[in-house]
Write a structure and sequence with these properties.
There is one protein chain. The chain is built from four helices and eight strands. Strand 7 and strand 8 form a beta hairpin. Helix 1 runs antiparallel to helix 2 and helix 2 runs antiparallel to helix 4. It is globular.
């Protein structure tokens, strides 16, 4: 089962669209499986929609939901600004970066890495560190949203399509 939703990239539209998408998921996933994953999907949706408002620079994004037997795939697509890697430049990346693990953000709590899968795509992973003091929690940075995506899902991927300049964030939430 799949469905697309148009998001107008406005703050006031986040909550209504999130409810609409969660209702679609609720209607198409058995209650026992949905109940366990509803918060994961909610966190993913809030972060993707918030990022569209903050970073895309375009009027609309498309949210595609694909519900399978074992996984919910959520894709946010727009034609706005590509994901930016400070030290590596814009997409497409140079071929010499393929296979590299790039540190996106590191602090006392965690380190987020982007793995360059191709000149146009990244996957992400996180390494967490033990919390020893309240000061560590108070120093959350910009990439905390990416951490939310990583912790709420089973995989996070980014793809830049040169042919049309579109950006795709693909998130998978396992129903197992």
């Amino acid at each position: 089962m799949n469905k697309q939703f148009i998001f107008d990239n406005k703050v006031q539209s986040i909550q209504p669209l999130m409810h609409e998408v969660l209702n679609f998921i609720r209607e198409n996933v058995s209650p026992d499986r949905y109940a366990v994953k509803v918060n994961n999907c909610r966190h993913v949706l809030v972060e993707l929609l918030t990022n569209a408002v903050k970073h895309s620079g375009v009027e609309n994004s498309i949210l595609s939901i694909d519900i399978g037997d074992k996984v919910i795939n959520i894709r946010k697509t727009d034609n706005g600004r590509p994901f930016y890697l400070k030290e590596y430049g814009n997409f497409p990346l140079h071929a010499s970066f393929v296979g590299e693990q790039i540190e996106i953000h590191k602090d006392e709590l965690y380190c987020i890495y982007a793995i360059v899968e191709s000149t146009n795509s990244l996957s992400f992973e996180v390494v967490e560190y033990p919390i020893h003091s309240l000061d560590q929690i108070m120093d959350m940075e910009e990439h905390y949203g990416l951490l939310i995506l990583l912790k709420s899902s089973d995989s996070v991927r980014y793809l830049f399509k040169e042919v049309d300049g579109s950006n795709h964030f693909d998130i998978s939430v396992s129903l197992a």
